[in-house]
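Study this:
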Amino acid sequence: MASNNLADYIISLPLILLAGYLFLRYFYFKQSEKEPASKVILVTILGGISVAIAFYAEQFFARYIGIANLGPDQLPYSEVVSKMVIMLLFVGFIEELSKFLAAMPIFFSKDFNRIRDGIFYMALAGLGFGLVEDFIYVGRVGAGGVILRLAFGLLFHPAASGFIGYYLGRAKYGLSSMSAVFAALVRSMLLHGLYDIGLVLQIRPNEHFWVAISP
């Protein structure tokens, strides 16, 4: 059962910060040519801020298509089918686009000087997004659920964004077109949506567990 206890936030915050530090340390020191620490921190923070953009965009589209305040018996199709459509067309699309936009400022920087920088900076944006999202979910899943999210969802966001970053890096040097970047973005959106759909199909047996690991 989800908890709103202040203790969950007190326990979860150090865990989330520690996970963020370890991931940043891993990404940073794995680079043969170290990126400026200021840019690393900036893109991670922008990724975190993009959670707010995704949240308000999702709320806007939910109101726009008229499903924001509908109960399960009022949805246009069955509850599961309606959730599947929402996950595929809205959640995956909006969240991947938000992370992409968070990393775009670095695309025009002189520090973006290798193809692998696209993977690196997009993964950082995904990391920032995942860390902030995990903290937001504390109220729903409690401290125990946050540990599951750190193990599953936090890995998903950098991986999905890093896939886009590969093509972004190639496009920077004319090895791929921006249409290839767009295609990679769409594939990541679909992958994100399909991942969430898989959770929706399994949510009945143990809702707390599946909400905990959703990205």
Summary: Residues 101 and 155 are 19 Å apart (CA to CA).
